[in-house]
Known about the structure:
By secondary structure, the protein is α/β, with parallel strands linked by helices.
Amino acid sequence: MTRIIDVWMQHPTRRFLEQPIFESLRRWTRQDSIPDIPLSLTVGSMDEAGVGVGLLTAWWGPQGALISNDEVASWVAEHPERLVGVASVDLARPMDAVRELRRCVGELGFRALRIIPWLWGLPPDDRRYYPLYAECIELDVPFCLQVGHTGPLLSSETGRPIPYLENVALEFPELRIVAGHIGAPWTQEIISLATKFPNLYIDTSAYKATRYPADFVEFMRGRGAKKVMFGSNYPMLTASACLEGSKDLGLDEESERLFLSGNAQRVFGLDDSG
């Protein structure tokens, strides 16, 4: 049985969950109150779905650290065989951000950087990202971001794959880029970029398998088999909910293995144990 890797998870702090921008998500998921989520619940959710390894991301925005890198490191230390850290940094202070990324990779063992463009109101081709792209290449770690419309109550403009992300891929061909959330309503744009650029990949976080657009499923079955990886965006959606109906996607055995684990192992430099 394939040991699933979930490439986009959060173990949320209360200050993360209480952000006013997430009110729309709480409404969609019918969450009237904001619970404290113990780490055991997050790991239990992975167990329920057969997820062997989860990439746990920090969150940093103009408000500061909503989920700090050190908090993520402490959770990874509790379950080093199950959790892998993904860094986030202060985009407003690029050199401090570069130093923090170096610390996260070199000292904390994190395996990627994730910035959420809509949180900053800055598309990924803004100059403030560029020192981080160069450092990701030097550290040999992927850069992860969200593409497509913005669920929280902020503008979706930064999520357009063309021209913003295309500019980055053109200027940093060595940079491994993982574009999360499928890219809807610009799904064809992100498919075209993943086809055009060898180092650009897509993850399915924030979408249930039953909601993947038909053209995206066709891409997964064919030329995109080595380009798409599974993500949940937990706790917004559980991995179990996201995987419902995945057997109906029509993937052959090898394409399914690549989607659920193989592509993530290659792109994030993970071995079978994470």
